[in-house]
Design brief:
Blueprint lengths: L2 E2 L11 H14 L9 H20 L8 E4 L2 H12 L5 E5 L4 H12 L3 E5 L9 H7 L4 E7 L11 H11 L3 E4 L11 H4 L3 E5 L11 E5 L37 H17 L1 H20 L4 E4 L11 E5 L4 H12 L1 E2 L1 E3 L4 H7 L6 E4 L7 H16 L1
Parallel strand pairs: 1-11, 3-4, 3-5, 5-6, 6-7
Antiparallel strand pairs: 2-8, 7-8, 9-10, 10-13, 12-13
Helix pairs in contact: 1-8, 2-8, 3-4, 9-12, 10-12
Bound molecules: pyridoxal-5'-phosphate.
Length: 380
Amino acid sequence: MPIYLDNAATSHPKPESVYQAVDHALREIGASPGRGGYRRGLDATRIIFEARESLAKLFSISDSARLVFTSSATEALNLAISGMLRPGDHAVTTSMEHNSVSRPLRVAESRGAAITRIPCDRYGFLNPRDLAAALQADTRLIALSHCSNVTGTIQPIAEIGRLARQAGIPLLVDAAQSAGVMPIEVEEMGISLLAAPGHKGLLGPQGTGLLYIAEGIDLPPLLVGGTGGHSSGEEQPEQMPARFESGTHNTPGIAGLRAGVDFILETGIETIRKKEISLVDGIMAGLGAIDRVSLHGPPPGKERGGIVSFTVAGMDPAMIGFSLDQQYDIEVRTGLHCAPEAHRSIGTYPAGTVRVSPGWFTTEEQIETFLRAMRQIVKT
Ligand SMILES: Cc1ncc(COP(=O)(O)O)c(C=O)c1O
């Protein structure tokens, strides 16, 4: 079996209960949720409801109907950004964003919105004072990631949330690299919109994602159409979450997502985070001791997410990834990781980095094997 160290792209493997939940939904339930009044139709509806409830518990959301299922974090981010920004509006973001934030912002810009991109430092940190200085009377959105998918840099979301709340500006957080591994309490942290994939730290299947939309946030839906209920009306229903969930749900995916979230709730987010920190510390220490290796992102001793990005002087990151795969059966990601501006911020553009991202099921032995492989690759 290959050693999988690309959990920042998607988590693998999943807890056994996730496979079972997908199989059960697909094989035994089968029916469409929110449509049929027969028993299996109601079972499908219950799956979706219970998944929403589990997610609401994880993120301390008091009304689970404010959580909308999407097919990915990207869809959730498009829904939030395209809906929030009109021509003439202003938004603030950072130089560390994934293309799933920066490209929808570019589209909004091409339609007449103004975007301020705040440069982050070479470790990837945003200075909240720069953010405060960038806010204007017409700022309608602050959009940024909680944890960088390039460097693992964690932004001070609670502090940014306080700033946003004081200024009365909605805060959109891209939690793609933090949901399921770091504590997130949306109401406490002043988050108005939270976008997350279901298939990374939340341990669900690919093809799942979510957007939390706080009370009072007025968004148009991305898609309109059949919602199962309110069938006589020609207009899209106003009710949450149906307003944003047209078309048949990804019931098997959402069933798996629920099992993933329940696994997290049972295991405890602190336990998951502690293991992530221990694995990342091991990777940092091991790589840091290899000649010619440069580690990027927060310096050792500073908190970071489950991501280590590095380069080796005189070696192309892509070649390192190729050797790890072909000679050692180890899977990592190389290049720009869909975040070119982040690499400009930390000085690794255009070749990018090698990115190692362990997950809940990664073992210390696997990390040792990876480090041994790296020592040999760098020596040759
Ligand atoms: C920071 C960040 N934002 C957004 C995304 C997009 O997530 P998805 O693939 O679920 O659309 C990713 C995935 O790589 C990411 O790392």
